[in-house]
Amino acid sequence: MSKNNGQKLAGKVAVVTGGSRGIGAAITKRLASDGASVAFTYTKGADAAASVVKEIERRGGKAIAIQADAADVMAVKAAVEKAVATFGPLDILVNNAGTAIPNRFEDATLEEMNRVIDINVRGVFVATQAALKHMRDGGRIISIGSSVGERVMAPGLVPYAATKGAVKIFTQGLAREVGSRGITVNNVQPGPIDTELNPATGDWAVPQKAATALNRYGHVDDIAAMVAFVAGPEASYITGANLTVDGGTNA
Ligand code: NDP
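Output (C-alpha cells, whole complex):
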C-alpha cells in the first residue's frame, strides 16, 4: 500500500472526525496509506470503525477508532487528547463528521436545525480548538464543507447549506490567525458523492446527478485524494482556500 505513493505523510499524526464510513473512512485509509498514524472518531458504528482499523493495520499502517459524537464537546476534546496520548502531537486535523436532515425550511424543527448546527459547525469549532492546542507548526486543518456552501442547487437543504457556508468562512478567518505558525486551513467542498448519507441511487440522486457537468456522482476516493494532497508537503502555500470537488456542479 505504502510503496506506491512514496509515504508522503510518514511520521505525521492525523485526527479524522467521522472516519468509520463514507468519505471519512476513505480519508482515514488514504492518510494511513500515505504513512500517517490516524485516530478517527465515530458514533454508532463500532463494527464499521473496527473494520477500518483492521484494514489499515493489515496493510502495515497505524490507526485507532474513538467513539465521540461531534455534538458532544467533552467527547470531542477527550478524543483529541486520546489521539495525542497514543500517537503524539498532531500534524493534521480533518473535520469530516457532518450530517444533513433534508426538509423544507418552513417545516424544519428547531431540534433538526440544532442537530445540524451542533455537528457541522460547533463540532468543527470544538475539534479545531482542541487540535490546535496540540498541533505542531506547519500543521494542516482541513474541513469537509460542501459545494452547497457556495451554491444551492436544490430545495430541502437550507440549514445544512448554511452550516457549510459557515465552514467556508470559518476556514478563511482561521487561516489568518494560524498562518504565523505555518499551519494551513482549507475547506474541501464535495459535490454529490456516493455514500450512505447521499446514495447515488433513488429519487433524491436524480437532480443532483443532473446538476453535475459529468452527469455522475463522485467516489469517496475523489475527496480523499484532495484531502491527501492538501495534507501533504506540496500544499504548504495553499491556505484559506475553498477547494471544490463536485464534478462541475457549481460551474
Ligand atoms: P456518511 O453519513 O456516509 O458517514 C458519516 C461518517 O461520520 C460515519 O463514519 C459516521 O459514523 C460518522 N458520524 C456521523 N455523525 C457523527 C457525529 N455526530 N460525530 C462523529 N461522527 C459522526 O456521510 P458522508 O461520508 O456522506 O459525509 C461526510 C462529510 O462530507 C459530511 O460533513 C458531509 O456533510 C460532507 N459532504 C458529503 C457529501 C455527499 O454527497 N456524500 C457532499 C458534500 C459534503 P457513525 O455512523 O458511527 O456515527
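Helices lie at 22-33, 46-58, 73-87, 110-132, 158-178, 205-211, 220-231.
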